[in-house]
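Q: Sequence in, structure out?
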Amino acid sequence: MPYKVLDIYKDLPRTNCGDCGKSGCFAFATVVYLEGVDPAGCPHIPAEEAERIQGLVIDDRSQGGGKKAPVWDQALAHLQGKMEEADLAELAKNSGSAFEDGVIRLHFLNREHTVRPDSITVSEGPQPSVWVKIFIYIYLTRANGAPPKGEWAAFRELPNSVSKSHSFEACAAELADLFSGRGEALAAAVKRLGGVDEKFGSADRSFKLKMLPRVDVMLLFWEKTSEFPARATFLIDKGILDYLDQEAIVFMAEALVKEIAGESINEVIP
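A: Exactly. Output:
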């Protein structure tokens, strides 16, 4: 019998206490199913129940479900292979990153990441998830050193973006719902990430955020009114494809929403 994320969630306490290190029980159920995390990481279920859940996950995996690590491993290994073959100093130059002592140092979402061909680490806090590592490796191996075009665009204006545009736009919609009537809280959260005010069009609030050394995002926010709900949108430089592909851009938007909301980007699973 299939045993999926929702089944795991139903077998957890569903208190969303966060003692497992995740934002809630559903997030924990997701990593148990997709990443093979031990259910015993929830301190509020008996050991025998954790073993039962793990057994059901293993059974489901044997039927083709569950852990997707092989796909991640292939993507990560491919990118690490490209890193091994590349001139790291040249990658750093093209991406606007620093190169010193044989490693690349770059900031993503206002945190410095130390990049080697076989690893990416941060000095404090949770270490990057496999998806964050893949994202950063994509940036470094794709960067061609071209200067930004200096023109803001909606995601759907980029080539071959139609299939991903709904996911990208949903990120801004989530942010609008979360901060509806809370514009000051949004401003504080954005500035905590290094964002700065930058007036743009008719938006009530607009901010420019440096996501990566050569990738900026413009966040536009309109407060709710008696007639219309709050709304938000993200704009990106028209030259962003010199540094990120379409899927990586969507991941970046999802990660930004998590950070602004005060949650962990390690929970973003494309």
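The chain has a mean pLDDT of 92.
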